[in-house]
Amino acid sequence: MPTVDSSPRDRVAARLDEYKDRLLELSHELHADPETSFDEVRAAGRLAALLEDAGFTVERGACDLPTALTATYGSGDLTVGVCAEYDALPQIGHACGHNIICAAGAGAAIALAAAADELGFRVKLLGTPAEEEGGGKVLMLERGAFDDVTAAMMVHPAPVDVVDPRGSSNAVARFEVTFTGRASHAAAAPEGGLNAADAAVVAQVAVGQLRQQLRDGYRVAGIVRHGGERTNIIPERTALEYEVRTPTGEELAELRERVLNCFRGAALATGTTMEVRRIQPDYLDLCHDPSLMDAYARNLRATGRDVPEPGPSPVGTGGSTDMGNITHTMPAIHPAIGVLGAQGMPHTRQFAEEVSGAAGDEAVLDGALAMAWTGLDLAADPQWRTRCVASRHG
């Protein structure tokens, strides 16, 4: 697939260089001021202000989500979407590197806009809150924010670059189970109680026994949110948060039902009642568009990075992302941008420190430029562009 002539590429690179300091400032500010899912008020405000200054039309609070936003520039049959995440993790801050995702996404959109008027296409940045918990992209997809997007992309930090179009993530479902029993004095009248804590214990033991029969790649994890009030009161209420992961979305419902049966059995055994609440929309597995990923890999190498070729077996993350739902709807990619030299893994305190250093800054700028050049290649290749627009909007 041919690349465009050097002039638009140079203008895109020059625009990124013009905003370099502000993009790194954005990354550092988000890192120093972490906000968790759906509470990313300051992060969304900083991102919106930067895009407004760059000439984008910004809608704050998009899709009736206070910390979501959309920012658009240009016009045409093709709309290149760039996703920006900015939520942090409780206690450990930006240990998943969403400060890099946000700044790289902003940089890609701003840089790509430098060629939008000449080539007649539109750039749309989607500020997507609550990836860690809440499914911001799924909610924005359901509410129409992606309807006009032809193709979408984002990068996610990792210790190494990963550009394998076969790579995927796990689908995930998260839910909360509440057991309700009957309180009683634990010493004077234990026979009068129905112990919700016992139900939680029985459920966890049953899930543990279930694990030995699960297929490779299936994962179940959970925590106790509430386990009782005092030792001298038979616990009347307990609450547990659980998640199940499978390699594909098609397998998710079966595993969720098997795990919920463990909870149902625990309620029956202890005489308690049980309520289930879905915490977020289900996340689907990633399904990368090969043409977009190949273009991104080529452009990432053009930044000067020594990007390894994909090996004989596809690389999976083990984690999950709501970007998976986007990849099942339109051509889209979610490659890993390496924080080169990082020793920690995502969701660790060590990685949280590393994403704010020099290697994290390089990931912001290289990821932004590679995405911008990829969007440019799509806009400038008539056959690819026509095929992509027809498949999405035809």
- Give the distance, in angstroms, between the N- and C-terminal Cα atoms: 22 Å
CATH class of the largest domain: Alpha Beta
As residue ranges, the low-confidence spans are none
The residue fraction in helices comes out at 40-55%
Largest sheet: spatial strand order:
1-2-4-3-5-11
How many strand elements?
12
User: What can be said about the biggest beta sheet?
Assistant: 6 strands, mixed
Q: Average pLDDT, to the nearest integer?
A: 96
Indicate the proportion of strand residues.
15-25%
What structural category arises from helix and sheet content? alpha/beta
CATH architecture of the largest domain: 3-Layer(aba) Sandwich
Tell me the number of helical segments per DSSP (H or I, 4 or more residues long): 13
Shape: elongated
Provide the domain count: 2
- The Rg value, from CA coordinates, equals 23 Å
CATH topology assignment of the largest domain: Aminopeptidase
CATH superfamily of the largest domain: Zn peptidases
Describe it for me?
With 394 residues, the chain is α/β, with parallel strands linked by helices. The chain has two domains: 6-168 and 285-393, Zn peptidases (Aminopeptidase), CATH 3.40.630.10; 171-278, Alpha-Beta Plaits (2-Layer Sandwich). It contains 13 helices and twelve strands. The mean pLDDT is 96.
